[in-house]
């Protein structure tokens, strides 16, 4: 992912150094009902919050996982390292699905899209088929449809804006760099082992203080 794509992800995910519950979780919905924000430990203002499920918990730049729990605090460096580690999965996922030449901007827009939604929409929405057929217009039109959340799904302004930014990045002119399948993009970034070592080194420094 290039700098423009990474900055898009950071801007739209936001940076939170303390873990917070999913807005559609039991705890998240209870907070919404009571006019309480879930971020920056605000959810703790809800009486009895400990008894409600907040899964999946999130921290940093939208990072989730079984290791993310309530009450966690990370440094900005830890959040950056986790973002790059997780992003590597989506870089590889996009590279494995798209067989035609992509520009750095196109590749990065797809990485942002998948970081937010997972790999499912790329395949289930046939976006990959459209891209591999070089029908870029149909692919980006489909990307714009992924702007809903909740049960039942409703349009979310923030998601609409993010999809528009991703499509704008995808459409920004630039020369193709290489087929995504053999992506030269991936070779220019840190490996998963590099990122894991980075995260380990950061944690070691924190613990030694």
Question: How large is the count of helical segments?
Answer: 10
Which regions are unreliable across 5 or more consecutive residues at pLDDT < 50? 178-188
Q: How would you classify the quaternary structure?
A: single chain
Into which percent range does the helicity of residues fall?
Answer: 40-55%
Shape: globular
Q: Would you list the SSEs in sequence order as H and E? A: HEHEEHEHHHHEEHEHH
Structure, briefly:
The chain is built from 10 helices and 7 strands. The relative contact order is 0.15. Helix 1 runs parallel beside helix 4 (104-117) and helix 1 (3-13) packs antiparallel against helix 8.
Give a verbal description of the structure:
The chain is mostly helical and 209 residues long. The chain is 53% helix and 9% strand. The chain is built from 10 helices and 7 strands. Strands 1-2-3 form a 3-stranded antiparallel beta sheet. The chain has a two-stranded antiparallel sheet with strand order 4-7. A hairpin with a 2-residue loop joins strand 2 and strand 3. Helix 3 packs across helix 4 and helix 3 packs antiparallel against helix 10. The chain starts with a helix and ends with a helix.
Topology:
Elements: H1 3-13, E1 16-20, H2 26-33, E2 58-60, E3 63-64, H3 76-97, E4 101-102, H4 104-117, H5 120-124, H6 127-132, H7 136-143, E5 148-149, E6 154-155, H8 157-171, E7 178-179, H9 184-188, H10 192-208
Helix pairs in contact: 1-4, 1-8, 3-4, 3-10, 4-8
